[in-house]
TrEMBL record:
Residues 205-214 have a biased composition (Acidic residues). InterPro entries: Allrgn_V5/Tpx1_CS, CAP_dom, CAP_sf, CRISP-related. It comes from the Eukaryota. Residues 26-169 form the SCP domain. Residues 202-245 are annotated as: Disordered. Residues 1-21 form the signal peptide. Keywords: Signal. This is SCP domain-containing protein.
Length: 283
């Protein structure tokens, strides 16, 4: 009897742990809507800023990498010409706080001089408001441990962007009267953002079947040190998430340093889960 209860408890814990790391449809919508809301509020205002929409291909890339539980950027980002922001928290995941944390870096970013102090982080913010980036896909994963970070039982959020931002020597957008430079294919001004006349709502998921490897390539580039986000996190009460960053990741000043990690494989987690469930059913 004791063994049955132990197996059931273990299986339930694994199931709940996996579920805790998965973004809900509401959280996906929140991430997209918050991006667009904040992109419309940049200062100085943007002459051209386009809407970001959800992309399932990017979500799959983010999901595969998040499952490795590595507190560092995906090494394949440059090859895939994608940008990336990271966030981690040990408490209840809050999508709004994650996006606001990234956007909050704007206080240290000097738009006119395109400059961020070396001891500050601005890369998450600039990727969020990079005018040419118009697609995003995010995924979260519940990690028992994070290689490169002294966190246990934390939720890692990975958001990938396409096309990538943070090109060396470039500002994230051109300043000017909102929508004054909307291109012909995005002629409508909606909340200071250029949109197509029939663009679906940002919280709706487009049916994206396009392979990233078939997308037009953008030139490879190296971001300046102050423009490249580091993993960002804070140790906070159980109900308050911390925040990470990397190649579009960020880490708050906690003395934590990002390091490479081999990560864990989703296949081994799923096989372990199935084994536990099978044993519970047999017994």
């Amino acid at each position: 009897m004791y063994w049955d209860v132990a197996l059931w408890s273990a299986g339930l814990w694994v199931i709940l742990s996996l579920a805790a790391g998965q973004l809900t449809e509401q959280e996906k919508s929140t991430i997209v809507d918050m991006h667009n809301k904040l992109r419309s509020q940049v200062q100085p205002s943007a002459a051209f800023m386009q809407k970001i929409v959800w992309d399932e291909t990017l979500r799959l890339v983010a999901e595969s990498y998040a499952a490795k539980c590595i507190w560092d950027h995906n090494p394949e980002l440059e090859e895939l010409t994608m940008g990336e922001n990271l966030f981690v928290g040990t408490g209840r995941f809050n999508a709004t706080k994650a996006t606001l944390n990234w956007f909050g870096e704007n206080v240290d970013y000097d738009y006119e001089n395109n400059y961020c102090p070396e001891d500050k982080m601005c890369g998450h913010y600039t990727q969020m408001v990079w005018a040419d980036s118009n697609r995003i896909g995010c995924a979260s994963h519940f990690c028992d441990t994070l290689e490169g970070l002294q966190f246990e039982k934390a939720t890692l959020l990975v958001c990938d962007y396409f096309p990538q931002g943070n090109f060396e020597g470039q500002k994230p957008y051109e300043s000017g009267e909102p929508c004054s430079k909307c291109p012909d294919n995005l002629p409508v001004c909606e909340n200071k953002i250029c949109v197509a006349e029939n663009l679906f709502h940002p919280s709706e998921e487009p049916d994206s079947t396009e392979d990233l490897t078939d997308l037009p390539e953008r030139p490879h580039t190296t971001t300046r040190p102050h423009m490249t986000p580091r993993p960002h996190t804070t140790t906070e009460p159980a109900d308050t998430p911390g925040e990470p960053t990397h190649v579009h990741v960020k880490i708050e000043d906690t003395g934590m340093e990002k390091t490479k990690n081999h990560g864990s494989k989703m296949e081994s987690v799923l096989s372990h889960l199935l084994m536990l469930i099978g044993l519970a059913l047999v017994l």
